Amino acid sequence: MENAHHIAARIGLFGAAGGAGRSIAAALGASGVRYRAIGRSRQALEAAFGDDPHADIAIWRPDDPSSVAAAAAGLQTAVYLVGVPYDRFAMHPPLMRTTLAGLHAAGVERLILIGTVYPYGRPQHNPVTEAHPREAHTFKGRMRLEQEDLVLNAHGRNGLNTLVLRLPDFYGPDVERSFLHSVFEGAARGERAQLIGPIDTPHEFIFMPDLGPVVAALTRTPAAYGRVLHLAGAGTITQREVAARAYALASREPKLMVAGKTMLRVLGLFNPLMRELVEMHYLLTDPIVLDDSALQALIGPISKTSYDEGIRLAFAAAKRTLNQRAPASV
């Protein structure tokens, strides 16, 4: 029976265990579509997808083309969600080369790369459409640009069609790699949240669960390939407003510790992750706001969770996690 299931999965999520992968898997599973959750750790995949009858689980090594090809066997569409540590962005292009080689070997027909705004560099105007120049001025931006170019240049070769979907920053229930995660944890615990300032600049965030239905639609939209598309958030909000709403849900006054660029440099002497944030700090002072009218023209209106509702759900998840960790009272 397992084999019959295995043959049926036509969509593979490479790097499935993160927030984006869980969002896409939930949307596919909800619409009855079988998918293959592919990652490095069977334990993490079992924890995330073991209860979903629509999920197959496969292990891969992203730096080995034969491992990629084995994980991709029988797939029509690959969705690439692979993250690397913030201080190891040089891994992005070589991992993508390996992945493309493996996908070609397996005869995969479509590839969707979930990308970022880093390749644009500083915004020349807002909102930013897909026609905005890509002038990455940071190391991380150049690595993401090189990764994108590998994907876009692979379009139409060896039977593969490719698409880059760019996202802004994100947040949501249990999305730990979000700039805003500390706000929901802080509000739930009644502790200080740590933010990177300035926190009064309007910024765009996508509510992570909104990503899944969009990617599911793109797997069914052949006309979307051979290009870049944007998915925008539900308008803009400041980090201070997010904090005010989250702490209000806990009936508390916001308690914030804000680190600016100078503080990041100091913290970076001790913490490599903080050091890496310095070059990307321009996204906080000079944020990019995306225009996704091209995507909506292709797949129709996109359902976007309001910030009020998204903050409520993210706070509720932080509260749940806190209660699960709390020792049972005697």
Automatic annotation (TrEMBL):
Residues 14-222 form the NAD-dependent epimerase/dehydratase domain. SUPFAM superfamilies: NAD(P)-binding Rossmann-fold domains (SSF51735). InterPro entries: Epimerase_deHydtase, NAD(P)-bd_dom_sf. Pfam families: Epimerase. This is NAD-dependent epimerase/dehydratase domain-containing protein. It comes from Paraburkholderia humisilvae. The lineage of its organism: Bacteria, Pseudomonadati, Pseudomonadota, Betaproteobacteria, Burkholderiales.
